[in-house]
Amino acid sequence: MDPVEPFEIGVFTFGELTKDAAGRPIDPARRLADVLEWARVADEAGLDVFGVGEHHRDDFAITSPQMVLSAIAAQTSRIRLTSTVTVLSSSDPVRVFEDFATLDLLSGGRAEITAGRGAYVESFPLFGQALERYDEYFEDRLDLLLRIRSRNPVTWSGTTRPPLDNVGIWPRPLQDELPIWIAVGGTPASVVRAATKGLPLYLAILGAPERFAPLADLYRTSARQAGREPSRIAVTSHFYAEPTSQGARDRFFPHYSSYIEQNMPRTGRLDRQALDAWAGPRGALFAGSPAEIVDKILWEHEILGHTRFLAQVGLGGLSRRDTLASIELLATEILPAVRAELAV
């Protein structure tokens, strides 16, 4: 692997507000304070990336990733700051670019955008958009966002917002080119879109990792067929680490079970046997000891060829103490071990 681009590891959160045993959700102010603390520790411990994602529901605390990332920028010094994701279908690309360019200036050139269509559709009625135009909105607004990034002033016309005629978009970011990633849950058409536009790709892996290998191959093949060199692939997964795998799963199980029940109800009830299977050597869940997680990251790298791993932390109302300890293990034991193996 090219030593100029070492394997990157980071953490992210949607700021979910999982209810406790008494049915009380986590207070949003407390959760946002948690997110700031997780970011500070991730930065100090040496992780590469911190991300926050957008939802517009009462069980998530973050509706504006750029606002939360700006607060994080003021309290960190080196970690890259990304949205995971920005729901571009229901956002104005002009405002998105302005906000992230401002974040880039405030953070000293650490901002990234991860654009996605969104796992939920609550933003469409909220912003007065027709759900049947779901794909059209994303395609149209991604085209505008990329046009804004590549030139200024901007002339553009599309189908989902008024045209722009030689309009300046300010400010411009500190980075020569603001990174824009595309997040994909498993749709081949979305993978091809990212590849043909030359954009790096996030794969949100919630099922068997092997089923994403054809998507990674499709991404690289589609890029080359479009006359482009394939860009980077990143992977996101649910995560919790402790010194021993048994300890990690014992502590994580009640929290993760609650998270699945409240946020992924179609998955069904998660029992302990299912969690152990998901956390096994070929499962999608990263819950175990540092050594076990290192092995799984390396195995996924063999089948996917990704160069960035983002761990979703704080799931199911896990305590701040336990989440911070897990982040520390990711930075101090897992990251250096993965890099050492891939540098051989």
TrEMBL record:
<dbReference type="InterPro" id="IPR011251">
    <property type="entry name" value="Luciferase-like_dom"/>
</dbReference>
<dbReference type="GO" id="GO:0004497">
    <property type="term" value="F:monooxygenase activity"/>
</dbReference>
<dbReference type="InterPro" id="IPR050766">
    <property type="entry name" value="Bact_Lucif_Oxidored"/>
</dbReference>
<keyword id="KW-0560">Oxidoreductase</keyword>
<dbReference type="InterPro" id="IPR036661">
    <property type="entry name" value="Luciferase-like_sf"/>
</dbReference>
<feature type="domain" description="Luciferase-like">
    <location>
        <begin position="9"/>
        <end position="303"/>
    </location>
</feature>
<keyword id="KW-0503">Monooxygenase</keyword>
<dbReference type="GO" id="GO:0016705">
    <property type="term" value="F:oxidoreductase activity, acting on paired donors, with incorporation or reduction of molecular oxygen"/>
</dbReference>
<dbReference type="GO" id="GO:0005829">
    <property type="term" value="C:cytosol"/>
</dbReference>
<protein>
    <submittedName>
        <fullName>LLM class flavin-dependent oxidoreductase</fullName>
    </submittedName>
</protein>
<dbReference type="Pfam" id="PF00296">
    <property type="entry name" value="Bac_luciferase"/>
</dbReference>
